[in-house]
Structure formats: structure tokens, C-alpha cells
Specification:
With about 200 residues, this protein is an alpha+beta fold. It folds into 2 domains: about 80 residues, Orthogonal Bundle (Arc Repressor Mutant, subunit A); about 110 residues, no CATH class. The chain contains 6 helices and 5 strands, in the order βααβααβββαα. It has a 3-stranded antiparallel beta sheet with strand order 2-4-3. Strands 1-5 form a two-stranded parallel ribbon. β3 and β4 form a beta hairpin. α2 packs across α4. The longest helix has 25 residues. It starts with a strand and ends in a 31-residue tail after the last helix.
């Protein structure tokens, strides 16, 4: 089981977003049969089987084993991942495109860049899994508490300068066998609760 799997197929995305199927996916973090799941989620076994077939058809769950109980064969299933990310690829032509309106200070542009990040890394992860190779990445995730908006602006300006200098030092346009890497640096207010208001940001 993968820790995170990427959903790129629109039909698979639609299946995963159904509330009951999402619940079954969560329950299948550990292997279980339709009969066991029926008791947990309060649905008839036949109805659970219907949902499981849809999830299996789209590669979101897989067979672990089959157990024979009298005249019935019980299929034990498990989720293919502990959690899932839906790639913007599933949105097709309406997927966000950062090239449409680049603006370093726009939250919506940040969303478009983040969506591209999910798309690109999702494709790399999927390709890496097929080739049984690990994708080389590096991530920094941290928090900075600013005393004022002026401090935040100064920090952003200095950060941009440092990153630009560092990238210029290592970037080699003519390197034979070199591979281009995308660099994304983002700064946004920390969201502590789902009811955070715009005024608080």
C-alpha cells in the first residue's frame, strides 16, 4: 500500500468523491470483506459489494485474498493507498494554468502553481512507481510569524533575492546530461481552523 496515491482519471476521481465510497476507502486502510464493512457502515452487504466493485474497477482498492465460507467465496479487499490526491489532470481543459495570469502576489495564481505542482509530481510518482524508481525531490515546510505586513513584505523580497542568487549559482544551461528541476517557493497565511475569516488573514 502506498502512503499517497495520485488519481488522474476523471472517472476514478468521481468514484472517490462519493461520500460512501470515500468512507469505504478509509475503512479499507486495513483489509476487510464486504460482510465486515457492511456492519461498520450500516449498509446491506450487496450494496457494499456494489461500491467495492466500482472502487476496484478504478484501481482504488485491490484483492488481498479469497476465503471460502460454505457455498460463498468471501473477497478480502484493501485500499491501494492510505490517502489519495486528485490531480488537476482529471479536470482536463479546466485545470488551472499558471501561465494564464502570472502574479507573484495573487493567491489564485498560487493556487494555480500549487495545482501544477500536484500534476507534475503526481505524474513523476506514477512513472516512478511503474519503473520501480524513487523520484528525487526536496521539500521545506515551515512557519514564520511576522510582526507586521511590512516585515512580511521585506522577508518576501529578501527571500526572492537569495533564491534567485542561489539558482543562478547552480543553473547550468549547457550542462550535458543535466536535468531541469522546477523550484517553487510559496508564502501564505497559516490556516488554523476551517472557519478562519478573510479579515483574520
Amino acid at each position: 500500500m502506498f502512503e499517497v496515491a495520485v488519481i488522474e482519471d476523471p472517472a476514478a476521481a468521481q468514484v472517490s468523491l462519493d461520500p460512501m465510497r470515500a468512507r469505504l476507502l478509509a475503512e479499507l486502510a486495513e483489509p476487510a470483506s464486504a460482510a465486515t464493512l457492511a456492519v461498520r457502515v450500516g449498509l446491506p452487504r450487496q450494496k457494499v459489494n456494489y461500491h467495492l466493485k466500482a472502487l476496484e474497477r478504478h484501481g482504488l482498492i485491490e484483492l488481498v485474498e479469497e476465503r471460502r465460507k460454505g457455498n460463498v467465496t468471501e473477497r478480502v479487499m484493501t485500499a491501494t493507498a492510505a490517502s489519495y490526491v486528485i490531480s488537476p489532470v482529471a479536470l482536463g481543459a479546466v485545470a488551472p494554468d499558471p501561465a494564464r495570469s502570472p502574479d507573484q502576489l495573487s493567491a489564485r495564481w498560487l493556487l494555480a502553481v500549487a495545482a501544477r505542482l500536484v500534476r507534475d509530481v503526481g505524474e513523476l510518482v506514477t512513472g516512478g512507481d511503474k519503473a520501480r524508481r524513487r523520484v528525487a525531490t526536496f521539500t521545506i515546510d515551515g512557519e514564520v510569524r511576522f510582526a507586521s505586513a511590512a516585515d512580511r513584505a521585506a522577508f518576501a523580497q529578501e527571500l526572492a533575492k537569495v533564491v534567485t542568487t542561489l539558482a543562478g549559482e547552480y543553473h547550468d544551461e549547457k550542462a550535458e546530461g543535466g536535468r531541469v528541476h522546477r523550484l517553487v517557493v510559496a508564502l501564505h497565511p497559516h490556516v488554523e481552523t476551517s472557519d478562519t475569516t478573510i479579515e483574520e488573514l
